[in-house]
Amino acid sequence: MNRNQLEDNGRSFIARDNVGPTRAMCNHQHCENVLREIKTAALEAIPHNQHQRKNKKNNIKYPQTTNKYWWDETCQNAVNERKIALKELTKKNTQENITNFRIKRNKATAVIKKTKKQHGEIS
């Protein structure tokens, strides 16, 4: 043990040079303080995206924005159809719903790839 560390019943303490050994800080407590400060700084610095909820009473879906320049209405419609098919599949797991979901999934993938290719995103 070096001169800056003290031990008290199995707990390790670090004595800081600028405060002296009387104000030693527990390693665990110090780590907790550092983590709390990091979390606080991250919450203040990082913007949070809150998803807008669907108005269930009037069945209105709020538009979702995307930063992909190639995304258009056909892509959005294909993805919405895929989501509906997935909900039906999770409600009732039948062979018809499985087949319907696979068709919608493949269609959505094809539409997205086709749109990307038209805009030069993929070759």
Fold and architecture overview:
The structure is a single chain. The model has no long low-confidence stretch (mean pLDDT 76). This protein starts with a strand and ends in a 5-residue tail after the last helix. Helix 2 (73-91) packs antiparallel against helix 3 (95-118). The protein has 3 helices and 3 strands. The chain folds into 2 domains: 5-45, no CATH class; 51-123, no CATH class. The protein is of the alpha+beta class and 123 residues long. A hairpin with a 2-residue loop joins strand 1 and strand 2. Strands 1-2-3 form a 3-stranded antiparallel β-sheet. It has helices spanning 27-45, 73-91, 95-118; strands at residues 5-8, 11-16, 20-26. It is 50% helix and 14% strand.
Would you spell out the secondary-structure blueprint of this structure?
Layout: E1 5-8, E2 11-16, E3 20-26, H1 27-45, H2 73-91, H3 95-118
Helix pairs in contact: 2-3
* Poorly predicted parts: none
Overall number of strands: 3
Bin the helical content: 40-55%
Helix-strand topology string: EEEHHH
DSSP helix count? 3
Mean pLDDT: 76
Question: Using only CA atoms, what is the Rg?
Answer: 28 Å
**Proportion of residues in β-strands:** 5-15%
Give the strand line-up of the largest sheet.
Answer: 1-2-3
Q: Looking at the structure, what is the overall shape?
A: elongated
Biggest sheet record = 3 strands, antiparallel
Count of individual domains: 2
Going by helix content, strand content and strand pairing, the class is alpha+beta
Spatial gap, N to C terminus: 63 Å
Brief overview, please?
With 123 residues, this protein is an alpha+beta fold.
